[in-house]
Design brief:
This protein has 331 residues and is α/β, with parallel strands linked by helices. The protein has a 10-stranded mixed beta sheet with strand order 1-10-9-8-7-6-5-2-3-4, sandwiched between helices. The longest helix has 24 residues. The radius of gyration is 19 Å and the shape is globular. The chain starts with a helix and ends with a helix. The relative contact order is 0.14.
Amino acid sequence: MPCAGGLAGRWSLLRRLVIERTFSMHKTHSMKEMENIFQLVRNIIPPLTAKKHKGQDGRIGIVGGCQEYTGAPYFAAISALKVGADLSHVFCTKDAASVIKSYSPELIVHPVLDSPDAVHEVEKWLPRLHSVVIGPGLGREDVLLENAKGIIEKAKIKGIPIIIDADGLWLIAQQPSIIQGYPRAILTPNAMEFSRLYEAMLRDPVDSNDHHGCLLRLCQVLGNLTIVQKGERDLISDGEKVLVCSHEGSSRRCGGQGDLLSGSLGVLAHWAFLAGPEKTNGQNPFLVAAFGACSLTRQCNNQAFQKGGRSMTTSDMILEIGAAFNKLFET
């Protein structure tokens, strides 16, 4: 049987290897700083204890889900629960509600998003929510986009962290003032969504030779909110620094992976915000949360692909959340 010192050494080496392949930062940052950032992710994770009551570790709201798109809000909401939130709400259209309910009894589903008083109906729940994710399965119907806009405005007034993904990003590209200057916002665009946002704000095409510079400029013009630019490597910035998550995932690009990211980010953003500056060492808490969400999503992708290969889907990735979380943050 190996000695305790040998096991400790192996775990230390494993952790270092995970860090090395997970986070590569702009070349001005050292390996030591990478280790410190990764440790900050662990710092914000609340301990499991019998002294807590239901809801303390996260009540997350997902705004999205219409007749055509019921999978995306489900993926985001169930991912939030499996990462560690206690309650997960979905605010969707009436015809999507029964379908989403049928996917899982764990979700609290509100069929209000297409009602005339949708903004008021969601606003009543905002004091009970720790963060909101806007966009998964939202669609682009004018009434739904207008209601999403109103919900964003109400969430801003209450100071709630807001994660915007998918068709929520389409809305922001059309009306960037909705979110501009709100420091508790996190946008999660893919390459196409990033280009659309960049051209809307900077009036120039993205420079494919200067990804870091383009990301910094877009963050800055939007008021230094946090952006996770998804891609082969995930670039994360708040307009002051750029961090790169290059954790090994896979080449499988099935739909729904971004919903897993946005749902898990909703939880981690709450935890980081709640943890306070002493736990994030003065770092922007939303950068720390984005690090955790990006690495977790990629680890789930890697584990699911090892089992399913080309047949892997996002449902397979969700089954890996517990093991991936444990491997990255709790071993």
